[in-house]
Automatic annotation (TrEMBL):
Annotated segments matching region Disordered: 312-341
InterPro entries: HTH_LacI, LacI/GalR-like_sensor, Lambda_DNA-bd_dom_sf, Peripla_BP_I
Start and end residues of each HTH lacI-type domain: 12-66
Name recorded for this polypeptide: Transcriptional regulator, LacI family
Coiled-coil zones: none
Length: 341
């Protein structure tokens, strides 16, 4: 014979909690959502009974009562890019510390997807951190007027932001190459829609001019290893001796492509990346790169968003900067003509 059917305990409702404490559902709801509006002993008793019964208010009910979902959206252009791992961690730690849930969104480098996800986020979360938005400034400015936003690695008028100071560190990268004796260098660009791409190029070009170096820009590429590998032909077509890439993934792809062509890094060609992602110090050779704290950027951006939510006003520091520096490893060396001297 079949055994007794398992029974599932139904979820406790707010009426169950009210009956258990002998109070009205309205009082229970108020105590759970706004404990400051009832006596502390009452709030504590209701919270204890709610925990014993396993009662948990739905996000929709909480939002209707308080106007808050207690959720923050983190919008990223490519969740597979290791640079964003630390950004996610920093944002998540800060959100959890404030009692918020973090909702992660991947736009796959698509402005259309980002626009669609942000429209949905307005209905499901209290605000959003944008980790490298691909939308136009005007659109983001209009959206920020209706929905709390903080931008990472992009500065938009009137929108709170946190940027990692990679331009200063890229100037250090040019200084390093000049000190090694390089005279002909290039920048392998990132996506044309990436706000930081042009700023990085400007920093590299200015530093190269200061040293009297010949510096060229090798177009716009996706921030991926495949894009870096595909750039090998353009990199080797001239007389370049070193390349600075938009990010580490491009650098690792370029390194792989050069190796397949029998070009040794750094003996015959030097490469500098940007971001110092996990694994940059595990490659062979290890990658010289720009190190910036993405985790700190995530923390600062989330703090700014929480301040905006708490006060209803822009954060006191509208634009913040996280430091960055050059980390010298093994993918850079004097160019062949200097090494032979």
């Amino acid at each position: 014979m079949p055994g007794p059917r398992a029974t599932t305990r139904p979820h406790a409702t707010i009426k169950d909690v009210a009956a258990a404490v002998g109070m009205s559902p309205a009082t229970v709801s108020r105590a759970l959502a706004r404990p400051d509006m009832v006596a502390s002993s009452t709030a504590e008793r209701i919270r204890q009974v709610a925990d014993e019964l396993g009662y948990s208010p739905s996000p929709q009910a909480r939002w209707l009562h308080t106007g808050r979902s207690n959720a923050l959206t983190l919008v990223l252009p490519d969740i597979t890019n290791p640079f964003f791992f630390d950004l996610i961690r920093g944002a998540q730690h800060e959100a959890a510390r404030a009692g918020y849930t973090q909702v992660l969104v991947d736009t796959e480098e698509s402005a259309a997807q980002e626009r669609s996800h942000l429209a949905a986020a307005r209905k499901t979360s209290d605000g959003a951190v944008l980790g490298g938005s691909r939308l136009p400034d005007t659109m983001l400015g209009e959206l920020a007027a209706r929905f709390p936003l903080v931008s990472v690695n992009r500065r938009i008028r009137g929108v709170p932001s946190v940027t990692i100071d990679t331009p200063a560190a890229l100037a250090q990268a040019v200084d390093h190459l000049a000190g090694l004796g390089h005279r002909r260098i290039a920048y392998l660009g990132g996506p044309e829609s990436a706000w930081f791409d042009d700023r990085r190029w400007q920093a590299i070009r200015a530093a190269a001019d200061d040293h009297g170096l010949t510096c060229s820009r090798l177009g716009h590429r996706a921030p991926t290893m495949i894009a870096g590998e595909e750039a090998v032909e353009g990199v080797t077509a001239g007389d370049l001796t070193a390349v600075i890439t938009y990010n580490d993934l491009q650098a690792l792809g370029l390194m792989r492509g050069l190796e397949r062509r029998g070009i040794a890094v750094p003996d015959q060609f030097s490469i500098i990346g940007c971001d110092d992602i996990f694994g940059a110090d595990l490659t062979k050779p290890t990658l010289t790169t720009v190190t910036g704290s993405a985790e700190l950027a995530g923390e600062l951006a989330t703090k700014a968003l929480l301040e905006r939510l708490d006060t209803g006003k822009p954060p006191r520091k509208l634009h913040q900067t996280a430091p960055a520096h050059l980390t010298i490893r093994d993918s850079t060396a004097p160019p062949p003509e200097v090494a032979r001297r």
